[in-house]
Write a structure and sequence with these properties.
This protein is α+β, with helices and mostly antiparallel strands and 322 residues long. The protein has helices at 5-29, 35-55, 58-61, 63-84, 95-120, 161-165; strands spanning 129-131, 138-144, 176-180, 205-207, 212-218, 237-242, 246-253, 265-266, 271-274, 286-292, 302-304, 306-308, 318-321. Helix content is 32%, strand content 19%.
Length: 322
């Protein structure tokens, strides 16, 4: 999904840092009139932290922060429980208190709805195509992945209006976006860097995820400036590999890095190109999708779920490769 640099930065800071820390602090320092008040506060806090833990963009905010938020939530819960013990179970509040109860319960219910979708995104209607992971040597993160029909927030590809308008979304239902994680737990040296070279995945060797024949190669698109908002709508430089009954597309590749040509036979794990930032993308990463092979352009083929060496690549899953 593509946002402007300012919008992306603001959303990431607010959703992953400001809101959870504010809720944790308020849980920690506030006074409770009853056990019911404490339970509602816990419901709000745990609902939000669970929501952002599952569906947050931690590859930008840092996976270290993801787990720190959970630890602080546990600490705040235990601390507040110690101070709420012994209170009456329920004390009838004033009108403002009822409004606060209602707002908290409605917000928690909405977050629960999104979380049900996140869980459903882990499951598929069809048996996944088992692929080899397309990178080696490092820690890699999935920042869009899972059943896009079940949850837009886990995998935007299927439900995005731009993909629907171009009639490419059916092939992208289970598409996966992958990047490499730095020592800071995010994808770049610097927060939302606007330099391709700052991203750990940039220029990494991409390996064929399966055995098959190279059916299509496109190698004409330059790298875009990260977070510029000016990228053209396409998957950029890409390679399509087909077998008897399915095809696998890898995209956003580095111009001039192609190691294969149409008609070549490739084997799983064979180097085929380098990761870049070409096409409709906000930052360097690899786009990969599997599709049921049929007549016509691959964009009209039905998407298939994938696994990487048996592991389900849903949003925020990590792969540790040798």
């Amino acid at each position: 999904m593509r946002f402007s640099h300012f919008t992306a930065g603001t959303l990431i800071v607010m959703l992953h840092l400001v809101v959870p820390l504010a809720l944790i602090l308020w849980t920690w320092i506030r006074s409770y009139s009853s056990i019911t008040t404490w339970l509602v506060q816990m419901l709000i806090l745990i609902s939000y932290v669970s929501f952002v833990f599952l569906m947050g963009s931690w590859v930008y905010a840092s996976f270290y922060l993801r787990y720190m938020i959970v630890i602080l939530t546990i600490m705040a819960t235990l601390w507040s429980f110690m101070h709420a013990r012994g209170l009456p179970f329920f004390v009838s509040p004033q009108i403002s208190g009822w409004v606060a109860y209602g707002t908290g319960l409605i917000g928690s219910a909405l977050l629960a709805y999104f979380m049900v979708g996140a869980v459903r995104a882990h499951f598929y209607d069809e048996t996944p195509v088992n692929l080899g992971f397309p990178f080696k040597n490092g820690t890699y993160a999935v920042f869009e992945g899972g059943n896009g029909k079940a949850s837009f927030l886990m995998n935007y590809h299927y439900g995005a209006s731009i993909h629907k308008g171009a009639r490419t979304n059916l092939s992208m239902r289970y598409a996966v976006d992958i990047t490499k994680v730095t020592r800071w737990g995010n994808d770049a040296d610097g927060f939302l860097s606007m330099k391709n070279e700052m991203y750990a995945v940039f220029n990494e060797v991409v390996c064929s995820p399966c055995d098959g024949e190279v059916s299509e190669v496109e190698d004409k698109w330059p790298n875009e400036t990260p977070w510029s908002g000016r990228a053209p709508y396409n998957v950029g430089n890409h390679i399509l590999i087909t077998s008897n009954d399915f095809g696998v597309l890898v995209g956003h590749l580095q111009k001039g890095s192609m190691l294969v040509k149409p008609g070549d036979r490739v084997t799983k794990g064979q180097p085929i190109a380098q990761a870049g930032n070409s096409g409709w993308t906000s930052q360097p990463h690899l786009h990969i999708q599997a599709m049921k092979k049929s007549a016509g352009s691959f964009w009209g083929w039905d998407g298939l779920p994938v696994s990487f060496d048996g592991k389900n690549p849903v949003k925020n899953s990590l792969f540790f490769e040798n």
